[in-house]
Amino acid sequence: MHASVLSAVQIAATLGLVAWMVTGFTRLPGRWLRWKMFCRATFTIISLTGTKDGRTEPVNVYDYLSPGSFILGPPQLQTILDHLTGSGRYDRIDGQGRVLSARGEQPVEVRGSRVVL
């Protein structure tokens, strides 16, 4: 009898812990995940195309971040775009993607080398 009671308590405790952990990472209105690290960071997932002299090619903005960096918000993206167009590497950069931040997930576009939220 004691073994079955202990087993039931262990199962209940395990299920309660799993439920608590799962709800800790669920989405709240206006928040991406619930963990504080994710709530304060801004991630940009974007696909870009650069045009130079009528030819287009894909642009990877993460190549222009310092090593180990992966958090890229719209202001940092605009700075990289300004650098790429100002240096003459591209005449124009366009693309679309998503921004994940404390305000949730929202679309982002790059039109004429300008970030548009």
Task: Present the secondary structure layout.
Layout: H1 2-24, H2 36-40, E1 43-52, E2 55-59, H3 74-86, E3 92-101, E4 104-111, E5 114-116
Antiparallel strand pairs: 1-2, 1-3, 3-4, 4-5
In terms of DSSP E residues, the strand content is: 25-35%
If strands are numbered along the chain, what order do they take across the biggest sheet?
A: 2-1-3-4-5
User: Describe the biggest sheet?
Assistant: 5 strands, antiparallel
Q: Give the end-to-end Cα distance, rounded to a whole number of Å.
A: 63 Å
Average residue-wise pLDDT: 82
The low-confidence parts are none
Provide the gyration radius in Å: 22 Å
What order do the SSEs take from the amino end to the carboxyl end, as H and E?
A: HHEEHEEE
Detailed description of the structure:
The radius of gyration is 22 Å and the shape is rod-shaped. It has 3 helices and 5 strands. The protein has a 5-stranded antiparallel sheet with strand order 2-1-3-4-5.
Looking at this protein, list some descriptive labels.
117 residues; alpha+beta; five-stranded antiparallel β-sheet; 3 helices; rod-shaped
Brief digest:
The chain is an alpha+beta fold. It has helices at residues 2-24, 36-40, 74-86; strands at residues 43-52, 55-59, 92-101, 104-111, 114-116.
